[in-house]
Automatic annotation (TrEMBL):
The record marks 25 as: Deprotonates C-terminal active site Cys. It comes from Paenirhodobacter enshiensis. The keyword Transcription regulation does not apply. This is Thioredoxin. The keyword Electron transport applies. The active site is at residues 31, 34. SUPFAM superfamilies: Thioredoxin-like. Residues 1-106 form the Thioredoxin domain. The record marks 32-33 as: Contributes to redox potential value.
Amino acid sequence: MSIVHVTDATFDQEVRHSTVPVVVDFWAEWCGPCRMIGPSLEELAKEYDGKVKIAKVNVDENPESPATMGVRGIPALFLFKNGKIVSNKVGAAPKAALKAWIDSAV
């Protein structure tokens, strides 16, 4: 499974009503660290296929969702389980650290 691109309009459906845990990456095209973790998130989306959904929200195109979450800096990663935030982290991290973070929360 590949990364799901979520908008303000699809956020509740894709994230809050998901039957599997969801990692949401709030990012922007101009953000260097966001682009740095992109390939790792692509790989993790394949590795966790069917177990964890990886979603991306472009903060420039969808200002509502990050504002609701209180996002101050990007990349901001939130892990949702049963529609609720169970963990979050800000900033880029290597793939191994992202995987460990996801594993500890699910």
